[in-house]
Amino acid sequence: MKKFVVVFALALASATAAQATEYTVKMKFNADTGKFFYQPARLNIKSGDTVTWVQEDPDNEHNIVAYADGIPEGVNFFESPLMKKRGQKWSMKFTQSGTYRYHCHPHEKGGMRAEIVVDRPSRPDEFRKPKPGEHIHSGGHDDGSGGHKH
């Protein structure tokens, strides 16, 4: 019986892992337009999926910083290291449903913002409340101009 339980548990774990998908978001700069951006800027994924951000801009440094009020309640604030070289990567597995809004700290004013929706968008009351000392930019609410309040 124990052998059956172990085999069943391993099979279940393999099936769950096989269903997870890995996505790539590229961090870029368009010299012609002067725009910094994530590609794609909006990504819809499922719980258990992983997103890997790839630095594809050889001339600028980029990172991934959550808006403290732009992620689901119960999710910890996250911030990647600053990626200085082309080809550097940072990954995160998403396990909780909702909207995750983030930006590149050095290029936020240049419009480098994006979001990931896991399973379904968050309702306004489902965004977390920032904790003291967290990144203070506000990303949980759209100000109607296509950007986030600051």
Description:
The chain has 150 residues and is an alpha/beta fold. The chain has one domain: Immunoglobulin-like (Sandwich). It is 12% helix and 29% strand. The strands form two sheets. The chain has a four-stranded mixed beta sheet with strand order 2-1-4-6, with no helix packed on it. The chain has a four-stranded mixed beta sheet with strand order 3-8-7-5, with no helix packed on it. Mean pLDDT is 85; it is low at 4-9 and 140-150.
CATH class: Mainly Beta
Number of domains: 1
The CATH topology annotation reads as: Immunoglobulin-like
Shape: globular
Strand content: 25-35%
Largest sheet composition: 4 strands, mixed
CATH level-two architecture: Sandwich
Output the strand order for the largest sheet.
2-1-4-6
List unreliable stretches of 5+ residues. Answer: 4-9, 140-150
Radius of gyration: 18 Å
Tally of contiguous helical segments: 1
Total strand segments: 8
Helix/strand/pairing category = alpha/beta
The fourth-level CATH homologous superfamily is Cupredoxins -  blue copper proteins
Instruction: Please write the string of helix (H) and strand (E) elements.
Output: HEEEEEEEE
Summed over residues and divided by their number, the pLDDT gives a mean of 85
